[in-house]
Write a structure and sequence with these properties.
Strand 3 and strand 4 form a beta hairpin. Helices cover 0% and strands 63% of the residues. A four-stranded antiparallel sheet has the order 1-2-3-4, with no helix packed on it. It has a four-stranded antiparallel sheet with strand order 5-6-7-8, with no helix packed on it. It is globular and about 40 Å long. By secondary structure, the chain is mainly beta.
């Protein structure tokens, strides 16, 4: 499984966002602070193009960049999180 993790500070509190996905089966999940926020099953054969979630009460989205070599990007309140 491929995995990407972001650690961010929102209002002086540390939060972790993780996305895990299988390039073979297409299944995956998103965890926010260790709790499952979203899960998807086989069939997509890649990371979904966009998944919406909430981090510490703020609107967030994970977007897929690339088609063959997928790289997820996290945006919180419209700001790209490195």
């Amino acid at each position: 499984m491929a995995k990407k993790t972001w650690v961010l500070n929102i209002e002086n509190e540390r939060h972790t966002v993780e996305v895990e996905w299988s390039r073979w089966s297409g299944s995956g999940k998103i965890l926010v602070d260790g709790k499952i926020s979203d899960i998807w099953r086989k069939g997509l054969m890649q990371l979904p193009s966009e998944k919406h979630l909430e981090v510490a009460g703020k609107s967030a989205v994970i977007r897929r960049k690339g088609r063959i070599f997928e790289v997820p990007e996290l945006y919180v309140d419209g700001e790209l999180i490195p």
